[in-house]
Each structure stands twice: as C-alpha cells, then as structure tokens.
Amino acid sequence: MGAPDRDRSTVEENRMAAMIVVGSVLVAVGLAILHRYGWLEVLVPAGGPAIDAVPLILFLIAVAIALTIWGWKRVLSFFE
C-alpha cells in the first residue's frame, strides 16, 4: 500500500516542479516584454515601494527564488 502513495507523491512533486519551471520562464519573458516596451515603469511607483511593504516584498522574492531553484533542480534531475 505504501508504494502507490509514494508514486503519487513523486508524480505530484514532478508536476509541481514542472509548473514552477514553466511559470518562471513565463514571468521572465513577461518581465522582458514589459521592460522592452517601457511598461515596467508604470508598475513601479516613481519613489519606489512604500517602506512598510518592503519586508513583505523581500519575503515574497525570497520564496519565489527558493521555489524557482527547487523546481529547476527537480526538472534538471530528470536528465541525469
């Protein structure tokens, strides 16, 4: 009984890793497009973000980087 649950867990982890990789590629392409056409300046306020939002922004950036690294490592491990 342990094997099917373990296989399902592995499939779900692989699926999540693939979604993170695809999402990171889409975000990178989206940011490149926004930067290319100058639309990125519209999203970022002229004086920068509010000072009380900085810890949350840094936390979200750290989580996004950690998930992206985990997803890419998981996907690249398929080719070993």
Task: Please describe the structure with a list of short key phrases separated by commas or semicolons.
single chain; 80 residues
Describe, in plain words, how this protein is organized in 3D.
There is one protein chain. The protein is mostly helical. It has 3 helices and no strands. The chain is elongated, with a radius of gyration of 18 Å. 2% of the residues are buried.
Using only C-alpha atoms, the radius of gyration works out to 18 Å
| Count of β-strands | 0
SS field, number of helical segments: 3
Strand content: under 5%
Write the layout of secondary structure elements.
Elements: H1 2-36, H2 40-43, H3 54-76
Helix pairs in contact: 1-3
Summarize the structure.
Helices cover 78% and strands 0% of the residues. The protein has 3 helices and no strands. The protein is elongated, with a radius of gyration of 18 Å.
